[in-house]
Amino acid sequence: MTMTEFVPLLAAVAFGLAIGIERERSPAHRGRRIGARTFPLLALVGAVGALLGAAALAVALGASAVVIIAWYWRVTGVDADGDSTGDVGITTVAAAVVTVLLGALAVVNAQLAVALAVIVVVLLAAKHRLHDFARNALDDRDVKDAVTLLVVAFLVLPLMPDRAFGPYGSLNPRTIWLLVVFLTAIGWAGYVAARLLGRRWGLFVTTLAGGFVSGSASTAVAARAARGGAGGRRDPLAAAVAVNISTLVQAVVVTWVIDRDVARAVLVGAAAGIAVLLVEVAVLLRGRGSAAVADEQGRDRDFGRPMSVKAAIVLASILALLLMATRAAAHEFGGAGALVVSAIGGLADAHAAAIAAASAASAGTITTGTAATAIGLGLLTNLGVKLTLAGTIGGARFAATLGALLVPVAAAVGVGLALG
Question: Please, are residues 212 and 235 in contact by the beta-carbon 8 Å criterion?
Fold first, then answer.
């Protein structure tokens, strides 16, 4: 055998050993006689079977299944006194079966087999955290939201036609819905992160995560906390400032999906703004410990929940309108028209305006520099909406302080866009 042919066998032994050690150290499985030695052997059985051919692999899988079933029957049976010897659960059995199959896969694609094995080890090692999250951190609405995400991503998206139509060929249903799926997934990820972290960081963590769904709504929640005196004034200010980190991060990410040249032009400005925001947040939270406030009116935190079907449809409609308006304005009035539309669009949603500008640049209707400027204008007008909400809900003093903190952020973004 050459070294290239030997690598899959070494990979099988390596990830089999990793899975086996994790099972060996699991408290529920110690002393059950399947672990650090058995799993590497099971991986080798799959790899050798795959090397010998389909018939040998079938025999190897069958023999492995018999051994695994016999082991499970033995450890979950009764002893000589008629007492139960215990139940180790089905997870180890499933892991053993997967290990055999991964061993066979290693012969075909060693990199993929190793990557999947890492996922298996992570799932096994995260047992307690996953169980706690599923049983205690989630509720029925969370399950409904997860199902919504699956429907939006895997049922609706494949049905969308992948062709341009409408005024100036500005609408592609699949592209629009793909962006909706992407934004929904980001919102879900932020929400899950907030639930996993719990309320140790209270208002700050949840508004930061909620900013990926709606920066304006998150700012409103922070302003409400300031009005109610929750956590003093520094905690709500830190939360309101942190919302803009989410806005800038998402602006870069969504434009990257549409046009990477535009995303690169925006990246410098966004990075400069985020740097200033991080410094301000650090100063506001310094010496504060954990911001343990929890806004009573926003306890359910609908602003931070993953995007609903209604919100997804609203976003898709906003995207479609802005795409048509930006393309038409750019076609009729050039870059100046696109700038005006982006500035107006930022009043509704900064990310939708960014997507529309990037799409116009991708179609060649406007230049990359004009698109970056349009995105900056959309972010600026959206910032005005946030400050208006902050003043209306949190009071003039809160809005003035927040505005003073965000002026250097806007300046940093502007300078970065000019340099980018």
Answer: no
